[in-house]
Design goal:
The protein is an alpha/beta fold. Helix content is 64%, strand content 11%. The protein has 20 helices and twelve strands. The chain folds into two domains: 2-21 and 41-354, ABC transporter type 1, transmembrane domain (ABC transporter transmembrane region fold, Up-down Bundle), CATH 1.20.1560; 367-450 and 565-617, P-loop containing nucleotide triphosphate hydrolases (Rossmann fold), CATH 3.40.50. Strands 6-9-10-3-11-12 form a six-stranded mixed β-sheet, sandwiched between helices. Strands 2-1-4-5 form a four-stranded antiparallel β-sheet, with helices on one face. Strands 7-8 form a two-stranded antiparallel sheet. It has helices at 2-16, 37-48, 52-89, 94-143, 146-151, 154-196, 198-205, 208-245, 247-252, 256-306, 313-354, 415-422, 445-449, 466-470, 479-488, 492-496, 515-529, 545-559, 594-600, 603-615; strands at residues 376-386, 389-399, 404-408, 430-435, 438-439, 452-455, 464-465, 505-506, 533-537, 563-567, 579-584, 587-592. Strand 4 and strand 5 (438-439) form a beta hairpin. Helix 8 packs antiparallel against helix 10 (256-306).
Length: 617
């Protein structure tokens, strides 16, 4: 992944110069249509299958708690009826009434305890499911090609990993027990109401069609809104991440106002999407409450009529309590359905990531690279990012082991892409690439990439100590070897002046060391890795002239015996290269050494003289 982070910026720059090469689902993207709701829901259920034993325990506990909660009003009715009979007869059976009330209190306590255990287990199920999701995402990141990161903003990816998974987590944690309680409550309460009065039960059940119609109509409309809301949230995160990471450039060109305006536009779109989604979800409960209140009034009128002789006061009281309870699980069910809409919208984005095309798998029996020396051959290589845009065409060259090859050409010629193909960050369309006669497609990617060391113009360091960054390729390295690499890179004197030396921590934004020092550390990292093949992209572009001369000498010494690819922008730095590839528009237009290419007086000659004259103006 370290190599992926370092070359990503270069790959994007080349693609931006190719006609028709879009940036993918980033800023200003067209909103995609909602995807298969049922399919995403089934995939979400599949994550719950391994938790089936715990789910059964949740269901059993929730069922017992709900049953106890449901029978409590019926037992309470017995106490009230006994009180009514006692008043009418002039003799109260207080012992029976007190015992009944104690039983009711015990039932409520036990019901609450069972529900607590149910929610506790449900939270465990939720966390295990989300843990597996995050683990799957982590494993997926290892298999995704560089192209995925080129076509998806880091903010959008971050939104999936954080916001979307957290949405799923909260839903699973809060809704599993609620859904079980609601379903059991509806059935149980309906049975208890039937045992009291069929007429009043008919009135209570008569409101169900309205509940279902309201829920289904609004849920169908809200699903599209929630999908759009999640997408806009990812877009906003991506824009904030881009503006924050490039804040110095934004300030330099006085574009703060424009950045704020763009943010406000995206934020306004998110506000509209969120407002519409939340409005539709928010009106469900008031509408259901209104229907429930109408039903409650009708039940009260009928109950008052029947209280004249058919039913006792305790039965009326119990039915009214059941009627009130009957509406709540229905509204909870509607609310859960509403929550599921936003959850499935989040799950859609998660599954899109998990189902993205992966890098090709390694061959069953990868070639042995233990004796590889570094001879590199490109034979008739073609490559395109998509079928409509060809980037590299018929690339042929050979570099002997230990040779130095420079790749030059205008921006967008395909220089970095050529190197990316060598490390199989992209797959070629035609031809083959070999190292010591072994087709790189027959090597395990891990083995292949272990052959390379990279020093790029855009440096990347991770949060951690200087020693950890220099020893990045071999984390368990020896401090003395790290110091030797730092000495060769001329960064040892700077590190020795720091209070904690090689154990100095680099902060998250890497702002406690200069750009030039970062460049030197990446050079020390490449020296320490001691690879077979080096890839250098203007490795001294961020250091002063005096340090550059030291580094050039160190790099020359480091390159001895190693095959070295130099992506050159300043042609004065590659005069001693054994082979120079001159690229333009995805093709090798010339190749040879410095003197041979100058004598041809062709593309390289004009390119070199244009730089030489510019430097002397």
């Amino acid at each position: 992944m370290a190599e992926a982070r370092q070359i990503r910026h270069h790959s994007r720059k080349e693609r931006q110069h190719k006609p028709g090469m879009g940036r993918g689902p980033m800023y200003g993207m067209v909103m995609e249509k909602p995807k298969d709701f049922k399919g995403s829901f089934k995939k979400l259920i599949n994550y719950l299958k391994p938790q089936l034993p715990f789910l059964i325990m949740v269901i059993v506990l929730a069922a017992l708690g709900t049953i106890l909660y449901i029978i409590a009003p019926r037992i309470t009715a017995n106490a009230i009826n006994a009180l009514q009979n006692g008043i009418m007869r002039g003799k109260l059976d207080m012992e029976y009434i007190i015992k009944t009330l104690i039983i009711v209190a015990a039932i409520y306590v036990l019901s609450s305890l069972l529900n607590f255990l149910s929610y506790f287990l449900s939270a465990g199920v939720s966390q295990r499911v989300v843990y597996r999701m995050r683990k799957d995402v982590k494993e997926k990141f290892k298999k995704l090609p560089i192209e995925y990161y080129d076509t998806h903003s880091s903010g959008n990816i971050l939104s999936v990993v954080t916001n979307d998974i957290e949405t799923i987590s909260l839903t699973l944690q809060q809704s599993i027990s609620q859904a079980i309680n609601s379903a059991l409550s509806i059935v149980g309460i309906l049975i208890m109401m039937l045992t009291i009065s069929g007429y009043m039960t008919l009135i209570a059940v008569g409101s169900l069609p309205l509940f279902l119609i309201i829920t289904m109509v609004i849920a169908k409309k809200s699903q599209k809104k929630f999908v759009k809301q999640q997408a806009k949230l990812g877009q906003l995160n991506g824009y904030v991440e881009e503006m924050y990471s490039n804040k110095m450039v934004v300030q330099l060109y006085n574009k703060e106002k424009r950045a704020v305006q763009n943010f406000e536009e995206i934020n306004e779109e998110l506000y509209d999407a969120g407002k519409n989604a939340q409005f539709l979800s928010g009106i469900i409960m008031p509408m259901l409450q209104f229907v429930n209140n109408l039903s409650y009034v009708a039940i009260s009128v009928v109950g008052g009529i029947l209280a004249g002789g058919r039913l006792m006061i305790g039965d009326i009281q119990a039915f009214m309590q059941y009627s009130h309870q009957f509406g709540q699980p229905i509204m909870q069910t509607a609310n859960i359905i509403n929550i599921i809409q936003s959850t499935v919208a989040a799950a859609q984005r998660l599954f899109d990531l998990l189902e993205s095309q992966e890098e090709p798998q390694d061959v069953a029996q990868p070639a042995d690279i233990s004796k590889v020396k570094g001879e590199v051959v490109f034979e008739g290589v073609d490559f395109s990012y998509d079928k409509n845009t060809e980037l590299l065409k018929d690339i042929n060259f050979k570099v002997e082991s230990g040779g130095v090859i420079a790749i030059v050409g205008p921006t967008g010629a395909g220089k970095t892409t050529l190197v990316n193909l060598l490390m199989r960050f992209y797959e070629i369309d035609k031809g083959r690439i070999t190292i010591d006669g072994i087709d790189i497609r027959n090597m395990a990617k891990k083995d292949l990439r272990s052959l390379f060391g990279m020093v790029l113009q855009d440096t990347w360091l991770e949060s951690g100590s200087l020693m950890e960054n220099i020893a990045y390729a071999k984390p368990n390295g020896d401090l003395e070897d790290v110091k030797k690499a730092a000495e060769k890179a001329h960064i040892d004197h700077f590190i020795d002046t720091l209070p904690q030396g090689y154990h100095t921590l680099i902060n998250e934004d890497v702002t406690n060391i200069s750009q030039g020092e970062k460049q030197l550390i990446t050079i020390a990292r490449a020296i320490y890795a001691d690879p077979k093949i080096l890839i250098l992209d203007e490795a001294t572009s961020s250091v002063d002239t005096r340090t550059e001369s030291y580094i050039q000498n160190a790099m020359t010494a480091m390159m001895k015996g190693k095959t070295s690819f130099i992506i050159a922008h300043r042609l004065s730095t590659i005069r001693k290269a054994g082979l120079i590839l001159v690229m333009d528009k995805g093709k090798i237009v010339e190749q040879g050494n410095h003197e041979e290419l100058l004598n041809k007086k062709g593309f390289y000659y004009n390119l070199y003289n244009s730089q030489f004259n510019a430097q002397n103006i």
